[in-house]
Design a protein that fits this description.
Length: about 325
């Protein structure tokens, strides 16, 4: 095994309090009469539409996470999960911040101090931190440019540029660690830009890249095989700051799933393949610091499980 397991943690929430009034919600859920697809309509109403950001809806893992939380809270009104219109991440978060539930009611994104300040986070990392275990999408035939790299200095000496979304916290994290980044607002633009050599590595989370390979035009592109760039990057569900009932429902549902073991089964079903297929346990780790971590209020209030050296071992044959 050539992976150097120097990473500080693999976020795995055990149990903890994130939103005020959650215990009360366990006993008597607050049921409103909203009509904006926010999951708070009266119990006797027909199911309301609950709008999930389209990029998340297209991810079977994120969609299944929201559905799991809803299934675990049957005392709340029924809802139908629907995708939003296609919109960049920055605009989706602005819709959330403005309380436009009919446009976007839920989004799953990496956290940041600004997002935690402006929105309501459900602070349970749905992929146990795999979003921060990142691999490069590269052009076919260019593996040799990445082989043997040991650290950031060597990465930069080879003149490699990383592509990222303008509104992603990753851009700031990578730049703060001395890496050179090219950014654009629209996620979909990054694939053709990589093909046209505007940059050399489209850095993607281990929980994302296999979805990209299935849903995006990967002609001429492939996954780099040696490196794993790791930094702490919790990814949460976020809702509008005025949508407290929905936030309580989602967190209550996920806490119940954790307690019952359903969350572990969910993780195994949706992320085991990424760990295995990308062979994360054999890669060389380059560990970066996330400058946001000291400012994240959720990270200070939630217990997490430290990364253990055997966390990314191959799964037993009977679980494959």
């Amino acid at each position: 095994m050539k992976g150097v397991f120097m990473a500080n943690w693999l976020g795995a929430v055990l149990l903890g309090m994130c939103l005020p009034g959650l215990i009360a919600a366990e006993i008597t859920p607050a049921i409103g009469t909203g009509t904006h697809g926010d999951g708070t309509g009266a119990a006797t109403d027909a199911p309301k539409e609950l709008v999930l950001w389209r990029r998340n809806y297209q991810s079977s893992a994120v969609r299944a996470l929201v559905e799991l939380a809803l299934e675990q809270t049957p005392e709340y009104p029924p809802v139908i999960l629907v995708p939003s219109e296609s919109t960049p991440q920055g605009r989706a978060l602005r819709e959330l911040n403005a309380g436009n539930h009919g446009q976007v009611a839920i989004a799953n994104v990496a956290t940041s101090p600004e997002r935690e300040k402006n929105l309501l986070p459900i602070a349970i990392p749905f992929d146990r931190g795999l979003l921060g275990f990142r691999v490069c999408l590269i052009r076919e035939g260019e593996q040799h440019r990445f082989s043997g790299i040991q650290d950031v200095e060597q990465f930069n000496r080879r003149g490699l540029l990383i592509g990222q979304g303008t509104h992603w916290p990753d851009r700031i994290i990578l730049q703060a660690n001395g890496l050179n980044v090219v950014s654009v607002p629209r996620f979909e633009s990054l694939f053709p830009m990589l093909r046209r050599s505007r940059f050399d590595c489209f850095l993607r989370g281990a929980s994302e890249v296999l979805i990209d390979m299935e849903q995006q035009d990967m002609q001429g592109l492939t996954v780099e095989t040696d490196l794993l760039i790791q930094y702490q990057m919790p990814s949460y569900l976020f809702v509008s700051p005025d949508n407290i009932v929905l936030a309580q429902r989602l967190e209550l549902g996920l806490r119940r799933a954790i307690e019952s073991g359903a969350f572990d089964r969910y993780f195994d079903r949706h992320f085991r393949r990424a760990i295995e297929q990308l062979r994360l346990y054999e890669r060389h780790f380059i560990v970066l610091q996330n400058p946001f971590m000291d400012e994240l209020t959720t990270e200070k209030s939630l217990p997490v499980m430290p990364l253990q050296p055997d966390t990314l071992r191959p799964f037993p044959a009977d679980l494959r």
